[in-house]
Amino acid sequence: DTGVSQDPRHKITKRGQNVTFRCDPISEHNRLYWYRQTLGQGPEFLTYFQNEAQLEKSRLLSDRFSAERPKGSFSTLEIQRTEQGDSAMYLCASSLGRTGVSETQYFGPGTRLLVL
Amino acid sequence: GQNIDQPTEMTATEGAIVQINCTYQTSGFNGLFWYQQHAGEAPTFLSYNVLDGLEEKGRFSSFLSRSKGYSYLLLKELQMKDSASYLCAVREWDTDKLIFGTGTRLQVFP
Asked: Do the Cβ atoms of B98 and A105 come within 8 Å?
């Protein structure tokens, strides 16, 4: 257990429905990241936050995806009008976030999404 | 462009030593990480290199050559529980994201 928690751990939904995932980072960590991983691939970066500010979004993050970190603590990732191609493991990671320091990112257990 | 290459699969015998290679080409470089990932679980941190040379941590060691864009993860005294995927990831200089390879699936046999 790294101290990063995600909820739910599994989600099955029908195409077209909206889903929301939550991530709680390690408490003193300022940076929070979202990645997506499909079978047989490494994680792909989606977006990251420094405190409450969203600093970068990948081109993978279409308009149907939105992420928030309103108080600089937990974060939510929402997918609207889900498609079968959204089926993947969604991973959250956090790091201390000190400027200029390459720090370790610690991953949560992930949310496995299946879109039928 | 960004490109991280590592072998897809490797096999080894319990008690042996295995070396997993990773080559990378990225637009910037600010450290290389190795993570272990068991099936259906999240990646767990193994090692980090930002300067050339060898970092040793118990049974695991990681090496980096920045001029060659090359790293390896060395696992000694293999145990059955080491069967997992090993992910090589590069942190880019001007962003904070990790760029992952596809992972190397290691199977350890008795």
From this structure: yes
DSSP string, chain A: --S-EEE-SEEEE-TT--EEEEEE--TT--EEEEEEE-TTS--EEEEEEETTEEEEE-TTS-TTEEEE-TTSS-EEEEESS--GGG-EEEEEEEE---TT-----EE---EEEEE-
| SS3 of residue B100 by DSSP | strand
Tokens representing A104 are 């370790």
Across the range A72-87, mean pLDDT stands at 96
Give dist(CA B77, CA B95) in Å, integer. Answer: 37
Size of interface A-B (CB pairs under 8 A): 60
Q: Which residues are within 8 A (CB) of A100 and not within 5 positions of it... i.e. 6 or more apart? A: none
Does A104 contact B45 at a Cβ distance shorter than 8 Å?
yes
Give me the residue from A44, A95, A108 closest to B42, CB to CB: A108
Nearest CA in chain B to A41: B102
Task: Measure B42 CA to nearest chain A CA, in Å.
Answer: 5
A61 — pLDDT class (breaks 50, 70, 90):
confident
Q: B97: pLDDT confidence band, cut at 50, 70 and 90?
A: confident
